[in-house]
Amino acid sequence: MKAKLEFNLPEDSVEFEMATNASYMHSVIWDMDQWLRGKIKHAPDDMSDDKYETYSECREMLIKLITENNINLDI
Fold first, then answer.
1. Residue ranges per domain, the chain?
2. Is the pLDDT of residue 43 over 90?
3. Predicted TM-score (pTM) above 0.90
């Protein structure tokens, strides 16, 4: 099975850039999720509750957006 994407350039340049950069976007989302996870999991004892809660809320929102948009980070 093959799939082929065609773009009329330069008219479709935005769509072309999005399609060709999707793997980079995936990596950015993955890296951000892992960074937030690390901040939460390995929080130092002197981290303020407000800062910890902010990291937690940011990760929860990121996961919510990932889920709502059917993004699979396991690929």
1. 47-75
2. yes
3. no
Task: Report how far residue 54's alpha carbon sits from residue 31's, in angstroms, rounded to the nearest whole number.
Answer: 18
Average pLDDT over residues 57-70: 97
Task: Give me the residue label for tokens 């072309």.
Answer: 16
The whole-angstrom distance between residue 68's C-alpha and the CA centroid of its chain comes to: 12
Which stretches within the chain are classed as H helix? 13-20, 22-41, 49-68
CA distance 28 to 21: 11
- Residue 18: what residue type? M
For 51-62, the DSSP string reads: HHHHHHHHHHHH
What single-letter amino acid sits at 32? M
